Structure formats: C-alpha cells, structure tokens
C-alpha cells in the first residue's frame, strides 16, 4: 500500500486573530508574517472582523448572536487550531480581544473554544513583548477549557525595530523563530487531536 503524498494530506486550518483594531498594528503584521512563513501543511486564515463584534451583553445574546459574533464563532469552529496575537494594554489583554473571547465562550457548555488547541504570541515596542497580556489570556483559557501551547513562548519585544514601514517582518531571526513556533503549534494540534 502506498503512502499518501504531501499534497494528499489535508492542511490544518488555523484561525488567526489579532487583538488590535489598529490598521498598523504590529500584531496584525505578525499574523501576516505567519502566513508568509507557515509550512504548506498549515492554512492560516486571519479573522479580521473584531470591530464587528459588539460589547458582550447577555440581553443581546438572549435575542441571538449578532452577525459579527456568528462570524467569529464560525471562524473558530471551522478551524483546527487558534492563533492569537495579542498586544498588551495596561499589563493585560486589550478589551476588544477579551470581549471576543467572552462572546466565543458562550454558551458555557459547548463553546467553540472548548478543547480548541491554541497558541499565543505577541509583539510590542516594549522589552517584554506582551508577556503579561499572554499570561492574562492563558488565565481566561483555563475557564474556557482552551488548551494553549505552553512552549515555545513567542514574546517579540522592540517590534518597531523588526518591521519595515509597510508592516513587513524584516528581522530574519524572528521570521525563522516564527516558523518554528508554527511547527510547534502544528505538532500541538495533532497531539491533542490524536
């Protein structure tokens, strides 16, 4: 019996979300770089509609998920894994990202986040590269039962020195590490699936 060729092997779909609404966000740029360096076995799809997700309100939820929330949940549901690039605001996760996680965590039983393999990364002009925000997001993922990859960590500090004016990641060492990080996410996803 012959082995399937690499082209026959289905690609893993990764839903990538940047926790920033800013067009020039380093974290959005980091996800675009991830698309560029990803192995052929990963299909990284950036969900770029956080601005369409309203503030969480149980009264609104009781009437049915708004369209932006449905789109978010569908993107996560259809993916094999989740990749979140978070900025750090006031030592924590930006409100827009936390709001999206709050919506995606509903309903508490059967949420699209439950059991979804995830990886967290972040870019910042500061030296710590979003370490505190990533830690806060991991705490939220404990409650949502979202298994976040522990290692390697991806904490891109001094991001302003590693992207060009067009938002392209130009630092070759960072590009190489990003590819290794994505390979680790692939292995994490396959491990949890098996």
TrEMBL record:
InterPro entries: Flavoprotein-like_sf (IPR029039), FMN_Rdtase-like_dom (IPR005025), NAD(P)H-dep_reductase (IPR050712). Signal peptide: none annotated. Residues 14-160 form the NADPH-dependent FMN reductase-like domain. PANTHER family: CHROMATE REDUCTASE, NAD(P)H-DEPENDENT FMN REDUCTASE LOT6. This is Quinone reductase. It comes from Deinococcus carri.
């Amino acid at each position: 019996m012959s082995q399937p060729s690499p082209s026959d092997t289905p690609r893993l779909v990764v839903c990538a979300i940047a926790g920033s609404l800013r067009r020039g966000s380093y974290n959005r740029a980091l996800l675009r770089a991830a698309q560029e360096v990803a192995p052929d076995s990963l299909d990284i799809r950036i969900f770029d509609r956080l601005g369409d997700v309203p503030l969480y309100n149980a009264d609104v939820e009781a009437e049915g998920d708004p369209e932006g929330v449905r789109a978010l949940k569908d993107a996560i549901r259809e993916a094999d894994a989740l990749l979140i690039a978070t900025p750090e605001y006031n030592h924590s996760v930006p409100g827009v990202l936390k709001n999206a996680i709050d919506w995606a965590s509903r309903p508490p039983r059967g949420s699209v986040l439950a059991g979804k393999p995830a990886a967290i990364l972040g870019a910042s002009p500061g030296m710590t590269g979003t370490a505190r925000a990533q830690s806060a997001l991991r705490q939220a993922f404990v409650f949502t039962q979202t298994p976040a990859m522990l290692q390697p960590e991806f904490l891109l500090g001094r991001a302003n020195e590693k992207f060009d004016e067009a938002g392209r990641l130009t630092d070759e060492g960072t590009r190489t590490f990003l590819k290794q990080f994505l390979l680790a996410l692939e292995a994490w996803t396959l491990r949890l699936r098996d």
